[in-house]
Amino acid sequence: MNGTVTVVSSSGAYSFTKPNRQTVTLLTGLGVEGDVHAGVTVKHRSRVAQDPTQPNLRQVHLIHEELFDELRAEGFEVAPGDLGENVTTRGVDLLALPVGTLLHLGDEAVVEVTGLRNPCLQIDTFQEGLLKQVVGRDEAGNIVRKAGVMSVVRTGGVVRPGDPVTVELPVGPHRPLERV
């Protein structure tokens, strides 16, 4: 289950969307260089308000580009970077990965998947009704989150569109992703 990086995005300011870039540099243990969410401790405003000393398990946000195809079929226009992700991929079922999966991005960078993104109400401000498309329920009534995965940087490096994404599953019993 390998894929490709299609777009990279970052923003130095708190904003819902992130501009697309030619490259981003991942910094070990911090996140995307120059991105507002980079750091050892939490940077998302709601998390900082709860406890600013929490470890930052949301350094790099990845979304599968296939989600945009699905949303388009439902009448929504969402492009890479629009949902605040740093890395957009194609060909990897990010939501099916277990906790601790390593994603090798390009020649150098490695991120470790920590959990699912839990989108907030701001997503409906971006496009009304979008939250119901990315957070729903399955047939059994379980919450299903589709807005990508969060990760921490294990090995830094430059990431650019066209880079390969190589999946390295963790050893031992796999734990399903939960929201982080």
How would you sum up this structure, described in words?
The chain is 13% helix and 32% strand. The model has no long low-confidence stretch (mean pLDDT 95). It starts with a strand and ends in a 12-residue tail after the last strand. With 180 residues, the chain is of the alpha+beta class. It has helices spanning 45-50, 66-73, 122-126, 130-134; strands at residues 3-9, 20-21, 24-27, 31-32, 60-64, 87-90, 102-105, 109-116, 135-137, 143-145, 149-155, 157-159, 164-168. It contains four helices and 13 strands. Strand 3 and strand 4 form a beta hairpin. The chain has one domain: M1 Pyruvate Kinase, Domain 3.
Structure summarized in a few sentences:
This is MOSC domain-containing protein. The protein is α+β, with helices and mostly antiparallel strands and 180 residues long.
CATH topology: M1 Pyruvate Kinase, Domain 3
Q: How many structural domains?
A: 1
Q: What is the percent of helical residues?
A: 10-25%
CATH architecture heading: Beta Barrel
Number of strands: 13
Side by side, the strands of the main sheet go 1-6-5-11-8-7-13
CATH H-level homologous superfamily name:
PK beta-barrel domain-like
Q: Any idea what the shape is?
A: globular
Largest sheet: 7 strands, mixed, barrel
Distance between the termini: 23 Å
Q: Helices and strands, in N-to-C order?
A: EEEEHEHEEEHHEEEEE
Low-confidence stretches: none
Average pLDDT reading: 95
The chain-level structural class is: alpha+beta
Classified by CATH, the class is Mainly Beta
Radius of gyration: 15 Å
The amount of beta strand, in percent, is 25-35%
Q: Provide a count of the helices.
A: 4
